[in-house]
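So, can you check this record?

>
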Amino acid sequence: MLRFEVLGPLRVRRDGLEVDLGPARQRSVLALLLARAGEPVTIAEFVDLLWGVDPPSRAVNVVHRHVGAVRRLLEPALPPRSTGRVVGGAGEYRLTVAADELDLTRFRRLVTRGRELAAQGRLADGLALAVDALSLWRGPCAGGPELLRRDHPPFTAVDRECAEVAREAAEAALYTGTVHPVLATVLAIADLFPLDEALQAQTLLLLEAAGRRAEAVTRYERVRARLADELGADPDAALRQAYDEVARRGGTAGPPVGARAALQAPTALRLAGFLRPAQLPPDLPGFTGRDEQIRHMMRMLRSHRTRVAMPLLAIHGLPGSGKTTCAVHLAHRLADSYPDGQLYVDLQGFHPRGRALAPLDVLGCFLGLLGVPDRAVPASLEARLGLARSHLAGRRVMIVLDNARDVDQVRHLLPGSADCLVLVTSRRRLDGLATAYGAHLVNLDVLPPDEARRFLRSRIGAAAAPADDGALDEIVARCGRLPLALALVSGRALEHPDRALADLARELRAAQGTLDGFASHTAQTDLRAAFSWSYRLLGEPAARLFRLLSLRPDREVGLPAVASLAGLPVRQCRDLVGELVHTGLLTRAGPGRYRSHDLIHAYARELCHEHDAELVRRAARRRLHRHHSRHLDDTVGAPALRGR
């Protein structure tokens, strides 16, 4: 019988005896499989864990060898070519473990049951199960000294999960007045997250309740100094309030913290009821690129710490620019600052069948996640919004609204509390959010050349030898530095590690002018599908203009040339071009000038040949040619007139 432990240094026991897990890379592969607790792990994640951004040329084959060694280690009697516990396929592996075999799955089962009991009002019983869960924690996830990378996202995600339970247990312990069973573990976990201000606040109160006031004061000063050094910020209101409470009690007599908390039962019970959503999608392993944008957004959001307005950030950009990936990565970077939960919803504003989620339905879902029973959820939009804002008041919750269609879809979902953070993504520039709510607007364009190359190397570095630099640069160029296209090609390279990058570059070269080189089996990664979600939102006049714009040879064009190509007045074309810009199919290149991405241009060309007759295309080209001829005559004739 096997037993696995990953909530601390990695251990495996067979029939009670500890198993020698072999060299560091092999141990790290096993640790990653266990941290995912039966979920699949891609080859790219293994490569990133073992080598980071500079893997060797044979890294994929080395990963396969390590996985094979893990398989033989766990099941030495397994016949050759048998699957067993380690299941592989489609560029990924997963380790099958029973719920009682892995400490992480036992931890989660205890926490889930404890939360259910607390939500029913049985707080002491829920706390007892949380204490049992925390007793399984022995340190950072897979945190032995031989682990190659402690900062790998799956390991840090497990650590954050444990920190969340520690916060919940601390609140429940303060409420019930039984602090000693959780104190040691909460202190140890809090040391891992010195910038988690909510956890530190609970730790101060636990120390004070345990009669260790001097230690609480020392911890506060240490956290305050670190916040100033690393974030340039002062402690937030919750941490300052906890410190003030500790300082005020000093040597005075009075009821303990737990008894004082009992005087505030409704609030304490809500906070201790474990009703904290954690809905963020997983962060991308080895996230690469957008360095300057991430730093810029972090600076903007930090500047909000001293304001009374709610921080609101809206990310927009052309289809395939990686808005969701960037927002999710940013959200994970900020998650520790919003310990009361993270809400996430895909608003489906650009759904292929036009099924954008209604704010009424989204608010109903949010209220359920915040602990409101179905029978208590109001029917009207205004009542639901008011109730959601009431539940979010005074709580540090992050809300990620992905794929928003327009401002109206977003504004009914905004909390009223400055303690919350809202991140929005959309293909459209949501100027109304900046005007009405002071939102920060961030545009994501294609990646800079160096970041695009680094993006590819971080994903397919295992298949890219130094001699492949030319092919790598060609792939970057033919992908137009668009993150979705780069991700699609890198995935294809990982699926076929025996193929040279030059072969992939040759395929893209052969498909030049079309999107045939970027076809995919799933709509989420297929470029045609991604572009079509914006195209389908266009009215017929704007859709016709989008198709005709593909007839021009260059990617940048002025408004008069657009009007000539379409055979329409400039004023009417200005509105149609605005519609294209609004859906991300065209970008502004300057006053009265517009640009389309190479791959979007190719998509428009395919549509034009499919929907517009040859006579229509020929007439549009003639109009554009006459426009350029007149423009050239004016340019050449002007000096002659001046010379007379």
